[in-house]
Amino acid sequence: MRFSCERSGKYRPFVKKVDGKEVTVKKRVRSTDTKKCECPFELKVVKGNDGWIVSVHNGTHNHPLAVYLEGHLYAGRLSTEQTSTVVDLSVSLVKPREILTHLKVQDPENVMSIKTMYNVQQKY
Length: 124
Hints:
Blueprint: E1 2-4, E2 15-18, E3 21-24, E4 42-48, E5 51-58, H1 80-91, H2 96-106, H3 114-123
Antiparallel strand pairs: 1-4, 2-3, 4-5
């Protein structure tokens, strides 16, 4: 297995096939940036006889460390209890910003965004 930085790789625009040809579709009018900056950081993990062997393929990053974790996929994940709280309060017609405030009061280290909560509401 290989583990890489979330900023590794290049941005790939949305492409769809029209009459057998791939056409880049510009869906958004607004200007947006991408997190991708071709970061070379990569770890290689192999299961050996004595357990897992982790080797550093490239240990450098080409970008500064994130100051805030809000908006990052891993840090913004919800636990099963938090997910059930969002679902229960949504069914009770509590406003999304109040649900977010409630979760952040329960867990001050929670860095989820309102977008994460909307995704949970849409899923359930």
